[in-house]
Design a protein that fits this description.
Chain lengths: 350, 321
């Protein structure tokens, strides 16, 4: 139609544009996207996808704290925060505004694993340090990506639980929402261990949002159907809290269960004397992202992918976590302690 | 009425009628203008080809879905499936254009899907006399599911030259929008287009006067579907890939833009320029508030106040009259 002839006539012009852009990005600086022309104090843009969940608020808290530290060192003068309210299109527009206002660094949790790729490439071409953490974008045109390994999460959780029930028994598996990559990856990570132990029988699996109430409801109905349960492989902290409450309400004995660093779950763990294990998506990934951005801007080499080892909570250190509980919101996550030394170590790894 | 009586010829009638139609949206135009000026002052880069291009690219898909919703609301309909249809358009584009169908084939597939879905929805709503809100809500699940079937996880690809053409450093998107608005003007001059307002405002009266009410309404749904999938194609080009849930927020935003633009829920009330201005305001607000340095929480409050203000000002004046 009318459009396609228009495309054809302008395609030559467009080809020229592509060539011009790719010629401009000869990589010679230390880290990806860094050109070395930006001087401190830096302005950091934090492109949040959705600010409402407690995990996000706590993560923003670590970013703000880190920025305060960097301000004192004279390295950062401003933190610009946007909230896309869950809309990936709005996030793209906000990242564009950050480019337009010439921020020095952009840190983001992506609302889509593909959609922000082009706008991030634009930012990268302008020498803006881009640090992507938690929800990642499929692109190489960022300075660094920072994340834990979701499949390792599933694998370690399965290992603990199978060990705890003596290598055989009947278990429930509690998953996050279907079709969400984090929930998918954690479940897939558990597969190898479960297959290696044919005596571990999966009674049922659930898919619920990462909230206590729906998980409790789902587990309650499963309890009626299954009088004998030896363990619960839960792949989310709120899910674990829901399961423990469901067992408790039914007057059933608590069974070995895996979980996450949700404060409510850790407190139930202690209160009920559970046999348990938990890991976490540390909120300080946000602080580390801000730190990494400044490191990269100062010309230091940073790895393109920073893999964060999963911190583990078990009976040996649960008391240390609960001792700090009052510093965290009641519906929040008690993350492992962090400091600059830890960040340095993480960025130095190959 | 006095305006019409004093007019002497059809040509002289045109501008007074246009001016009359603008009355309800004048306040909105002023607010949009104020925001545009503010944006230009805060971000002088807006006046470069690339800055203007990037800004209009952020606005473009919202403008299309605002039109898609407005054309339905003008006929007394509504669609809750616009977001899902945008997603479907995006995934069709991202899965076909880099394959054997090529860009032309992919664009044709996107257009056909939009027209087909729109016409089918329109047929069900109009011929079976079912409430549009129910049909399109159910439709949103079907269409959203289809998008997930075509592309279960974000992926696919759009040829880079197409992305750079539509969403590069040029105002191409703005020019396409101008063309679409001109096509809309042309459509309003056709018999079906002329029937649109009549079918919305007084369907029984229009039917008795020989207006093809049903045809006008089905056509409106088909055009709405086409605009929605086209918005999806653009989003795919803009992002260089497909995401099966990328359009979700467009359903509510399209309704917000249309209502902000003075389009009534009961049909026959409002103008397309109003809906476009409404969508422009929604898009401008995001950028302007960023440059004003509002915190996210302050932005929520300010956005709500501006929307209520833009809708309420004309109402105050009506009440005073």
């Amino acid at each position: 139609m009318k459009k396609s002839s228009f495309f054809a006539s302008a395609s030559a012009l467009c080809l020229g544009l592509v060539l011009a852009v790719s010629a401009g990005t000869a990589a010679n600086a230390a880290a990806n996207c860094i050109k070395g022309d930006r001087k401190p104090p830096y302005t950091i843009g934090w492109a949040d996808i959705y600010s409402v969940p407690t995990w996000m608020k706590q993560t923003q808290g670590t970013i703000e704290a880190e920025v305060e530290t960097l301000k004192k060192q004279g390295l950062v003068d401003k933190l610009v925060v946007t909230d896309a309210q869950g809309d990936a299109n709005v996030q793209i527009q906000q990242i564009q505004s950050m480019i337009d206002s010439n921020v020095d660094a952009i840190i983001l949790i992506a609302g889509s694993s593909t959609a922000p790729a082009r706008v991030l490439a634009d930012a990268c071409d302008k020498g803006i340090a881009i640090i992507n953490f938690d929800s990642l974008v499929d692109t190489d045109k960022v300075t660094a990506k920072i994340n834990t390994d979701s499949s390792q999460w599933g694998d370690q959780a399965a290992k603990f639980l199978i060990n705890a029930i003596g290598g055989k028994g009947k278990i429930l598996i509690l998953n996050g929402p279907a079709g969400i990559s984090v929930s998918d990856d954690r479940r897939k990570g558990a597969d190898a261990e479960l297959k290696a132990h044919p005596d571990v029988k999966i009674l049922a699996e659930t898919n619920t949002p990462y909230n206590v109430a729906p998980a409790q409801e789902a587990v309650t109905s499963l309890l009626f159907a299954n009088p004998e349960i030896d363990g619960i492989l839960s792949l989310g902290g709120a899910l674990s809290a829901g399961a423990v409450l469901a067992l408790d309400k039914q007057g059933r004995e608590q069974v070995p269960i895996t979980g996450e660093n949700a404060r409510q779950f850790l407190e139930l763990w202690k209160e009920k004397g559970l046999k348990s294990w938990a890991t976490m998506q540390p909120n300080w990934l946000g602080a580390l992202a801000a730190y990494t951005a400044v490191q990269a801007l100062q010309g230091k080499d940073v790895p393109a992918f920073v893999k964060i080892p999963l911190p583990v909570i078990d009976n040996s250190n649960i008391d240390d976590y609960l001792a700090r509980a009052k510093d965290f919101p009641a519906d929040g996550y008690i993350y492992s302690p962090y400091d600059e030394e830890l960040f340095k170590k993480l960025l130095a790894q190959k | 009425m006095s305006i019409i009586r004093s007019a002497k010829s059809a040509g002289a009638l045109y501008w007074p009628v246009q001016a009359h139609r603008n009355i309800g949206v004048r306040a909105l135009f002023l607010v949009v203008l104020a925001f545009l000026v503010a944006y230009g002052v805060l971000f002088p880069g807006l006046f470069t080809a690339s800055g203007f291009g990037k800004f209009t690219q952020s606005w473009f898909p919202l403008a299309l879905v605002a039109m898609a919703q407005a054309i339905l609301m003008l006929t007394g309909g509504i669609s809750l499936a616009i977001g899902a249809t945008v997603s479907l358009g995006a995934v069709i584009a991202a899965t076909t254009m880099a394959g054997p169908l090529g860009v032309a084939g992919g664009a044709a597939a996107v257009a056909l899907a939009g027209l087909g879905i729109g016409a089918a929805t329109g047929f069900i709503v109009v011929k079976l006399r079912l409430p549009a809100i129910v049909v399109t809500l159910a439709g949103s699940f079907i269409i959203g599911g289809a998008a997930l079937l075509i592309l279960p996880r974000p992926g696919g690809a759009i040829p880079a030259w197409l992305s750079d053409l539509l969403a590069g450093d040029t105002p191409a998107a703005f020019l396409i929008l101008v063309v679409i608005v001109l096509l809309w003007k042309l459509y309003l001059a056709t018999p079906l287009g002329l029937s649109l307002y009549a079918a919305g405002e007084n369907p029984v009266g229009a039917y008795r006067s020989g207006v093809p009410v049903d045809a006008a309404r089905v056509a409106a749904y088909a055009i709405s579907g086409l605009l929605s999938t086209s918005a999806g194609l653009f989003v795919a080009a803009q992002t260089g890939s497909g995401d099966p849930v990328i359009g979700t927020a467009f359903t509510l935003n399209s309704i917000a833009a249309a209502v902000l633009g003075g389009i009534g829920f009961l049909g026959g009330q409002g103008t397309m320029r109003g809906a476009l201005a409404g969508s422009l305001l929604l898009s401008l607000m995001i950028s302007v508030m960023f440059f004003l340095g509002f915190t996210p929480v302050a932005q929520y409050v300010a956005q709500g106040l501006i929307i209520i203000g833009a809708v309420a000002i004309p109402q105050f004046r009506k009440v005073q009259q």
